[in-house]
Amino acid sequence: MYVEVKPILEFARKPIVDSLDIAIEERRDLGLSVPTNFNLNIGFHQTPGTFASAVSSTNKNPSLNISLLNIIRGFAFKTKKKALESDVKNLINYFDIARDFLGGFGESRVALFLDDPEKQFYRFEHEIHSSSSLQSLKRMMDKRGVPYANYKDYLFNNIESTQSLLIKVIDSGSDFIKSYSYNVLRHELDHVDFYENVALHDTFLRQGLEFGGALINAHSNTNPLTQSKYLKMLPDKLRSVSKVNSFMEARAYFFNFVPLGEWRSADFDSISSKIENHYCNNYIKKSFQGQLLSYAINAYWIVNKMDETTSNYLHQKIANKTGSIDSERYGQIDESKVDKNLAKQILEHDLPHWENIFIEDAKQVIGVLNQVYSKDTSIFPKANSAKTVDQYVQILNQELQNL
Asked: Contact at 8 Å (CB) between 45 and 91?
């Protein structure tokens, strides 16, 4: 495991690594596979809306990213420290807007910009973007309703206050950071194990690359055969996403609802009901809505039925509904130019249709996961060689029958 932490956050290394060691030991005690080749990134605000997140890649080790600002915000809310909560909210807002503007993975470009804004902004405009791509970015932002110049002014006008506020907030939350239990790491470590040790994840990534290539070709090619290839792949891709996502999240959610050291006394039937409810109402209907919408919108772009105003309207609608910071990307949208029939089709038919599929897939896997967690967790590694979720579940069922 490689640990990356900024100097100002070095105080958080020991409590986080110690908590991760406890989570790893728990997996060993349960007879589960244990990931070893991953990166631990301790940062300010790695992923919007989460304390921690696990990220996979086709050519890099998985990453487990810790977002300390989100943890401090949770602490401020719980202890009713209104001033601290307001300060953290302002910082998170700055990071989210800067990330949306500067792009990049995690908080890397935002952190570099905070360290040296003039140098990094020059690099952003002259090295990261070609002249044509920069112009395309500006046009896209204009059409979304928040011009490029507004982003730039916001970042530079608030740079000094953000730098000083960041130091103040980290100092205010340092004692809590040192004593925090980091129970969330148990969930994310299960994702890292899935990325590193379960064969079906590699299959899923390869399918994603193939699908992404078909999407790019369909967008850049008006050939009906190319467009047809993407549209034929879309239902299969979404079904694959549904099965893998339902399995991966449900498997990890058991670590949210079973307290550390209480596996023998847990009421698994009650826990399964809680997981099903959480997956449906918090994940599918909130966290994953933006991704589902992107799939639906792309399908209509390919056949020339989507337009930028309707796309922006839909993205803003879903962002507002789910409380996503993405809503701030969009300015005032002229609703008279929105294709209301198409928007209604997507919001009232396409999204609910796929939501129901995801939820049904989750119900199917939660049942067998419940049995394995309650009877013999050491069964799980025996299914790591499976290349599909169906194969994985089949192996689990066979092992359960052999008990």
From this structure: yes
Q: How far apart are CA 17 and CA 1, in angstroms?
A: 10
Q: What's residue 104's pLDDT?
A: 67
State how far the Cα of 181 lies from the Cα of 91, in Å rounded to an integer.
23
Model confidence over 19-50: pLDDT tens digits? 999 999 999 999 999 999 999 999 999 887 78
**How far is the C-alpha of 125 from the C-alpha of 182, rounded, in Å?**
38
Interval 7-19: pLDDT, tens: 899 999 999 999 9
Helices (H), 182-257: 184-197, 199-220, 224-257
Q: What is the DSSP string of 265-321?
A: T--HHHHHHHHHHHIIIIIIIIITHHHHHHHHHHHHHHTT---HHHHHHHHHHHHHH
Q: Is 355 exposed, middle or buried (0-12, 13-18, 19+ CB in 10 A)?
A: middle
Comparison of pLDDT for 117 and 224, the residue scoring more: 117
d(CA 252, CA 371): 15
Residue for token digits 């078909």? 214
Q: Which residue in 170, 218, 216 sits closest to 12, CA to CA?
A: 170
